[in-house]
Amino acid sequence: MNDLSAILEILLLLGIPFVPIAVGVLLRRKFSPAPGAEGAAPAPMTGAQKAGRLAGTLLLWAGVAGILFVIVVALNFKGYL
Amino acid sequence: MKTLRPLLASLALAIAGGPAFAAEAVPWKDADYAAQFKYFQETEAFTPAQWRELLPEDQEQALRETREPARERQQAIQDYYTAVMTPWDADQARDYAGGTGAEDVAAVRLWLGPERAAAMQKKLSATRAALQAAETEGLTQAQAAALKPYLTQETIDGLRSMKAAEDLQRQADPARRANEIPKETVNAAIGGVSGAVGDYTGRSINKVFDGSTASGDVSDPVRAGGTAGKSYEIPREAVKATVAGATGQLGAYTARNTAAALGAAQPRGSTAATVKSAAPRPPPGTGTPPADKKSSAWTSDAYGYTIVANGQTSTYRSQKEAEAAIRALPAGSVSKITLYGHGSPGMQTVGDASYEAGDTAQLLKGKMAPGGVIQYSGCNTASIGDATLNPAVGLSMLTRRLMYFSLPYLQDRMDGVPAAQAKQQWEKGWDADLSRDTSLQMKGAIVCGYRTFGLVPGRLPGLTKLMGNQEATTPGYVAGKMVCYQDGKEVPAP
Q1: Angle between helices B419-429 and B407-414 (to 10 degrees)
Q2: Counting one residue from A and one from B, how many pairs have CB atoms under 8 Å apart?
């Protein structure tokens, strides 16, 4: 039981940096520019859409940086870096 | 009356000849004056030839004047020897083994004889070998049994379990290093840094990290050398003080007689002026600056002690020198001390030295001024604290839990350690609060540490070469969440 809870905890901890990535991707999708008519240019983004995409992009890359951080720490802990 | 004349004449002759008999020359190392001659040998006041050249009355005067200093010196050596031969605890073993020199053994040989010197040497050799064996292959049962006359049982048990502890520490060490300089993250966080981080920049980064403006900086540190000294050496200052009174008087007549014997007009330099082994120690805050020797490595090897006492700031790289300097300081004189190196939950290292709460308290007991600050400049030297919305602090917490609980726990399980035992061990240690524990043992002092991993820009590979601070003894700016305690309660950073 201890082992299982420890492994679950590790998965949860390791998963935390993926949360902002997932939220970022969702935000970027939600605020993506609406597709225009066939062959036409997409409609220009509104201010809210721009803000939403920016927030999504920031979260996405913060999550990526967090994962890299954890990988570097883990590799260093094992003596590979 | 005539019959009385020979008698009176004999009496007169006897009275007149009395002083002559009394002032008979004393041979070198005469057994009746053993202590004085040992004293002469140690202080190099006389050589046998010089002694023979002295007039009998000068010899007598020298013996009379050195009687008391010699007795005191003999007592001091006897006390020292008694202390040396008492079973040592772990600290004493390390100090004696590292700090006792050939000259100390020689002094014991001179004053107490070759048997005692041999016994002392044997104890030192056995202890040194045991310390080395404990760190490498571990102590065997036979080796431990052989140490019984020399070390306390607790110390022997500690040495026997040292190998296991070393393995654990080795397991944790890379982790500490990893988080001192998480290169990509730090680079991203302080991408604009191209040289020394200024105060403004420092405060800004700190604010990003934890919203605080605290800094671990020591303002205007004056580099100064450490004082040389050994904690368990022969009490030379006391000896010197003892000798001082006698040497002045001795010097005068020694100079006169030796110069006369040599046929020289000028007085000889004071042969009895100093005890050979009594080179006075420089006071704390003076000496050769150790930080001048700068490595040109790309990576940092920065660690050290910074002691602010009586308005003077001194820095040290050597544990021995720093601890000797601290011991030499008067009580209540330290207004701030910074221990800079790597940290992990419950422990701070400074170079090869490591400090847990009890070690720091023992070292600084009575030395701190009211409200004096003990600053641990190392990662995770305080507990993680309350929940936070700061993502950087959150990542630090997460990494700390992974590194100091999850991974060691799984490693232990793979090594066959029972689950309950592994969990209990690592659960207890991963969030240890070194600063708080120290403050509970150092009443009145303010003890500060970091709740997070500390990012020291000056330690960045490459940057450290540019700044030439590979062997810095003070951290400068540290990006991390600092916390301070006084008597176990959180207080604002001073």
Answers
A1: 150
A2: 73
Q: In the sheet where B353-355 sits, what is the strand order? A: B343-344, B347-350, B353-355
Judge whether A37 lies within some domain: no
ipTM of this predicted complex?
A: 0.72
pLDDT of residue A59: 92
Through-space distance between the first and last CA atoms of chain B, rounded to whole angstroms: 100
Angle at B357 between CA B323 and CA B380, to 5 degrees: 105
H or E segment to which residue B338 belongs: strand B334-340
- Rounded to the nearest integer, the mean pLDDT of chain B is 72
Domain extent listing, chain B? 4-153+233-262, 181-227+284-491
Residues B55-73 have a mean pLDDT of: 81
A71 part of a folded domain: yes
- pLDDT, tens digit (0-9, with 9 covering 90-100), for B359-403: 999 999 999 998 999 999 999 999 999 888 888 888 889 889 988
Q: How far is A62 from chain B (nearest CA, A)?
A: 9
CA distance A15 to chain B (A): 11
**Which has more pLDDT, B105 or B195?**
B105
Q: Is residue A8 part of a domain?
A: yes
- Structural domain harbouring A62: 2-32+44-77
pLDDT interval class at B23 (50, 70, 90): low
- A63 at interface of B, judged by CB pairs closer than 8 A: no
Q: Has residue A38 been placed in a domain?
A: no
